[in-house]
Structures are given as C-alpha cells and as structure tokens.
Specification:
Number of domains: 2
Structural class: alpha/beta
Radius of gyration: 22 Å
CATH superfamily of the largest domain: Alanine racemase
Bound molecules: pyridoxal-5'-phosphate
Distance between the termini: 54 Å
CATH topology of the largest domain: TIM Barrel
Number of strands: 18
Largest sheet: 9 strands, mixed
Number of helices: 12
Shape: elongated
C-alpha cells in the first residue's frame, strides 16, 4: 500500500503545468494519517495537522476530509482553516511571541488557544477568568530533534513556559480562575528516539496534579520521516503502544480520562510532495560538474537553511549511466541543493525531482531575485489538478507603490 507517484505521472504533470512545479499526492497523506490513527487506536487520540508545513487550502480541505484537525501558528492560518471548512473548536491556535491582540482575535473566532508565555497567560486570565478554557505550552527542557535550529525544547529556546516556572503558572491560574484544559509540549522536529516523547510525558504527569481539569495532553510533534534511502521514520506503532500504556496508567491515578493530542506536520505532508525542476545547464568547472536547474533556494530553502538532504532523481532518463553532480539553482547567491550527488546522467532539458518536498517546501518559498513562485498541483484518484497558479510578473508589483 506504499503510495508514490510514478515517473510517468510526474513527467505528465511537468508537461501539463510547466516547471518548476510542486506536486502533492493526496493518497500518500492519507496513508501517513492512517498509520498514526492506527498506532493510537487503543486510546482516544486527535491529530492536529500542523499546517505551517503546507497551507494550501486544498490540502487543508483534504486534511479535514480524512479526519485531521488543524494546528495553526498565526491568526491567518486560523482564517485559512476556517475557509477550508473547519469548525473553530477543531482548530488549535499555538502562536509564539504574538501580542495579546492576536490571541484575542483567536478567542473571538472561538478557536482553542495554546498559551506559551506567562505575560499572555496573565492577561488572558484577567480577561476571561475561567470562561474560556486554555491549553498551556510547557517547555520541558528536553534535548530533542535533528539540529539546534529545529529543536525547541532546550534551555535557550524561546518556546513554551519553562517547567521551572510552574509555581508562577499555578499562581496565575489560582488568582485568575483560569480553566486549564490541556498541557502541551513540542520539543522539536525529526525525533527518532521514542524515549523523548515518554520523557516529555513524565514531565507533564508530574505537573498535572496542579491542574485537576485536564481533558487532554498534547505531545506536539517531531515525527521523523526518511529523507535518505537508509533513514528510518519514527516508529509510530511502538510510540502508540508506549504512550497509550503510560497515559492509561496516569488516568488511573488522575481519576479522569485524558485524550492524547499530536500535531504532526512533516509526517503527514513531507513524502507526499515532489518538486519537479528542469536542468537548465550542465556546467563543467575544474573542480566539479554542476547541474544548474530552473529553481533555487527561493523555492526550496531546506538544503541551504537546515543542511537538509533531499533525494533527487532524474525522471527523464532513469536508466542513464551514473554520474557525479553538484546540483545548484539559478539564483545569484550560493544555492546548492546537493554536493557530489550520484544521478543518472543528466542532459540539459531533463526533469529532476526533489523528493520529500511537501513539508516546508513551497511554504518557505520567496520571490528572491524577483523570481516567481511555482505552481502547486494535487494528484488525487490518479488525476492531477492545479491548486495554485504560478506567480506572474504582476505579482512582483502587487503591493509596490508605483
Ligand atoms: C512546527 C510545529 C509542529 C510540526 O512539526 P513537524 O516537525 O513538522 O511535525 C507542531 N507543533 C507546533 C507547535 C509547531 O510549531
């Protein structure tokens, strides 16, 4: 049941819609979602798709159709979620370092609110008392995740309210009568080690005694997906068994049932996505053979920003002799996608595909170098449809005052 798009399907999309183009495979999203729901079938569990990974409204609608809720980090993501047909209480608003007005807007819209600093918690408590249940984001100070840029639980992190400030949280809650409905942690991205989730859970259990009205514990995300051939993804089956067992034991002591919540972003949409580009030029230098493609970090910034590895394949000539290339973009800034990558021989005009490009791909794109953002296409039931047009020149001028 492993869902992928074939080279033929990808080439057909490239020919129909042009390149560069992002392509998303709906059934792959569903496959990932089913793996998660299946892993947690023995305990009431909700999955909030962390939509900052990919916010196209068509993707959000699809998420809704398969039963995922939505995690939003800005008021605009909340609005996109509502536009996609979500009900406010299916949306969790987890912003960071926003002013109180943005929180208030979330409250006006009736979404679930996850508060991540003491100042906001206090203002919220004064304004709403116990009338608007909230979730509190705790920083458990657990080291986790692929690298420092994507780790959010460490001591220097700006995220969450430190576990060491729990006395202060308790003071605010007691004084204002806040109704704390959930506790949340999110320690980072690309966590392979399941113990990290269990450690986080222990931290939550420890402080939960101060919050007798919890309905859920939100373990955030950080599920890893394989980028390289020999990479492993987070073992969600074992995670499901261990977390379920721990929470069920906790419930006995706590004498109340609590749901488990998660906020997967990358896990749901990374592998569904492909970025198809065209090889503009092959350039031999004294040191290397470059493939210069019609894209750059303006379309896919992860390699330059996170040192991320994306598998690349030549879909035009998958049987060609193996050669060693450095794959670069066409913008005037160093934008190397891959050094010393073995690809089937690339000729000018060939289509190359970046795999696992669904998460934080289009979403982090820009118009740097006055280049245009690519189109987005969704393939569902074997049919490809355009879900975002590519930029046109006028888009560059849209907000400029002429
Ligand atoms: C980014 C983010 C996520 C999703 O992280 P992934 O690594 O993409 O799964 C979940 N929760 C919060 C609060 C986030 O900021």
């Amino acid at each position: 049941m492993y869902q992928t798009l074939s080279n033929e399907q990808l080439i057909a999309v490239a020919n129909e819609f042009g390149t560069p183009v992002y392509v998303y495979h709906a059934e792959k999203i569903n496959e990932q979602f089913q793996k998660l729901t299946n892993a947690f079938k023995d305990h009431p569990t909700r999955f909030f798709y962390a939509c900052k990974a990919l916010t196209n409204v068509n993707i959000l609608k699809y998420m809704r159709s398969i039963g995922a809720y939505l995690d939003c980090v800005s008021i605009n993501e909340v609005k996109l979620g509502l536009l996609a047909g979500y009900k406010p209480d299916q949306l969790l608003f987890t912003p960071n370092c926003v002013d109180f007005n943005e929180i208030l807007k979330g409250a006006e819209l009736g979404v679930r609110i996850n508060i991540d600093n003491l100042s906001i918690l206090e203002q919220f408590g004064h304004k709403f008392g116990g009338s608007y249940p909230v979730c509190i984001r705790i920083n458990p100070h657990i080291e986790a995740g692929g690298n420092y840029k994507i780790s959010t639980g460490h001591i220097d992190s700006k995220f969450g309210i430190s576990i060491h400030q729990q006395r202060h949280i308790a003071r605010i809650v007691k004084t204002t009568g806040l109704h704390v409905q959930g506790l949340h942690i999110h320690t980072g991205s690309e966590i392979k080690d399941i113990d990290v989730f269990l450690q986080g859970l222990d931290v939550i259990f420890d402080i939960a005694t101060h919050f007798p009205g919890l309905d859920f514990i939100d373990l955030g995300s950080g599920f890893k997906v394989p980028y390289k051939d020999d990479d492993q993804e987070t073992d969600v089956i074992t995670l499901g068994q261990r977390v379920t067992k721990a929470v069920q034991e906790f419930e006995k002591e706590y004498q109340r049932s609590v749901e488990i919540w998660f906020e997967p972003g990358k896990y749901l949409v990374s592998e569904c996505g492909y970025l198809i580009v065209k090889a503009n030029v092959i350039k031999h230098t004294t040191a290397s053979v470059f493939v210069g493609v019609n894209s750059g970090f303006n379309h896919l910034i992860r390699p330059m920003f996170y040192d991320a590895y994306h598998r690349i394949s030549n879909i035009t000539d998958p049987g060609g002799a193996k050669r060693i290339y450095t794959v670069v973009g066409n913008i005037c800034e160093t934008d190397t996608f891959a050094w010393d990558r073995v690809l089937n021989e690339v000729r000018e005009g060939d289509f190359l595909v970046f795999h696992n490009a669904g998460a934080y791909g289009f979403e982090m794109s820009s118009n740097f170098n006055s280049r245009l953002k690519p189109a987005e296409v969704m393939v569902q039931d074997g049919k490809a449809r355009l879900i975002r047009k590519a930029d046109v020149f006028e888009d560059l001028l849209k907000n400029q005052v002429l």
